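Appendix B, record 7
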Amino acid sequence: WPEDLEKIPFMTEKFSEGLIKGVINKISDRSQKVLILDYTFWPIDTVNGHTYPIIPPDEAYDKLQTQQGYIIVKPLSSSVSITKVYIGYYLSQDYQPFLQPVYVFEGEHFIAYVPAVADEQVE
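Structure tokens (predicted):
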């Protein structure tokens, strides 16, 4: 899992899995040791960055309520209790030449992302 960038954590489409992961067998036969290896790595350019305005948390919450976010972990019922909201950087499985800031909404059996960059800044 990549280290936080300026104290901002990285998020993936599966939340609890990174883009680099593997499944290893306990069998002592070396030829059958690694069962699955999924490796996606995109280098992050921390030198040539740009700053864009982000929306306030209450606007991100409104977007989440109007289905303009992405539910990563679906709740067990139709109502959820959000206990934590913070900014993260979304790491896509597909190449993006930029880091996308997202609001992360967490609750019991619930996680959602809402893009944090103001709509007028996105093409």
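Remarks on this record: Residues 57-65 form the longest helix (9 residues). The CA atoms of residues 12 and 92 lie 6 Å apart.
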